[in-house]
Amino acid sequence: MNSGRRQQQQHQLHELDGSPVQYHDHTEDRREVSRHLLNAAVKRQTECTVALSNIILRNKLNTSTAVMTDKFRLPARYGAGEKSVWVEYIQLAADYKPAVNLGQGFPDYHAPKHVSKALADIATSDNPLLMQYTRGFGHPRLVQNLSKVYSPLIGRELDPFNEILVTSGAYEALYSAILGHVDTGDEVIVIEPFFDCYDFMIKCAGGIPKFIALKPKTNKENMTSADWVLDEKELSSLFTNKTKMLILNTPHNPLGKVFTKEELELIANLCKKHNVLCVSDEVYEWMVYEPNKHIRIATLPDMWERTITIGSAGKTFSVTGWKIGWAYCPANLMRNLQVVHQNCVYTCPTPTQEAVARSFEIELSRINSPECYFYSLARELLPKRDFLVRTLKENGFNPTIPDGGYFIVADWTNLGKKIDLSTEQDKYKDYRFTKKFAKEAGVLAIPPSAFYSEAHKNLGEDFARFCFIKKDENLALTEKLLKTWNSSK
């Protein structure tokens, strides 16, 4: 074999097995070189086969994963699975740690002593059954006390075991009412802004939400929640033969509107005319500021028969973490709620139900006294409301003064030139404002566009929602932070 031929074979061997190239002037055994070439070729072929097999396996796994992902995707009735405003803003608070959180609606101070003491006593009770399941539709002691509270208020004797349901918060009462009565294709009228779960629950039931917005009659200073009104003709036009339900929220979240008797009569007359149910979300019923009065729509003529009223221990006793709510209505309407409840929640925690029952007994014993928490709560909140309204006004906001509840919706657009929102990527201005404001000023608020349907979100973009059921020192800190932020601009 000549020298050029040997070098060519040695180069081939090097390319195949990576062995170093060596040149010899003496004659090499051709069979040995051929054997090396053959082994190296087999090795390379094996490596290629393994690589190809891995590619095929990955493709199969990717195809299988794609098929599984498609099969196990979120059902269409849940939309795209977007995060709720609460999930997003709780995370925002955790990430940026604003000095004051006026976002979510809960007190940052203690509930009445007798309320927390009731739960503490139950935790150490000699009665072991207080730690076990209780009646599915409501702990007997609690439903009996609910009947004692509400029967005088609605002017009829409530059957505690057939006309009252205890639920996992007012949230589940809404869920059971909507899922229990709305069928595929039914239309449900929703007044905007609305608690964001209404829309979602209606769609889960296969219903079709129809929205109508409360709109301010004016943008003047010292505007109150009473200035936000419905258009009578627009409301009337939404009622059709497909309308199953209207959801009312009074006192209203987030506006604090307390619907007047005339406004409730308009809604009631339309519900009666078109044979429509009314779900009345009244969780802020005890937070009404004089001279306003909370009127239960179930008390209007011929409305008891078609009204499901919802209440909350969390709001009544300032214990939102207990998650105890209720609904009351005629037994024939209640049956539908019971069916949903027994197949999703079944029963609520016995200790908290017992504690709420005992708390009601304390308040019932002083129901005609100004010390009753049902009445003292609003007096306690009034100076907090007025302080935050003044603070917001003095720092460039235009707040709507609420007649009820514990939220203030404030127009922030006068501050638009002081804050650069271009660094925030959200679609809606109020999201961009509240996020940037939390980062710069250290005060967290909620964007009200979250409480509007997609078509009407623009109606909430100029506002931010602030909660004032907070310690006085935290409201004072809010004032300090807003003044500091303003002076730096």
From TrEMBL:
CDD domains: AAT_like. The keyword Transferase applies. SUPFAM superfamilies: PLP-dependent transferases. Coiled coil: none annotated. Residues 99-476 form the Aminotransferase class I/classII large domain. Keywords: Aminotransferase, Pyridoxal phosphate, Transferase. Its cofactor is pyridoxal 5'-phosphate. Pfam families: Aminotran_1_2. Residues 1-30 are annotated as: Disordered. One of its GO terms (cellular component) is mitochondrion. One of its GO terms (biological process) is L-kynurenine catabolic process. Residues 12-30 have a biased composition (Basic and acidic residues). Pathway: Amino-acid degradation; L-kynurenine degradation; kynurenate from L-kynurenine: step 1/2. One of its GO terms (molecular function) is pyridoxal phosphate binding. Belongs to the class-I pyridoxal-phosphate-dependent aminotransferase family. Homodimer. This is Kynurenine--oxoglutarate transaminase 3.
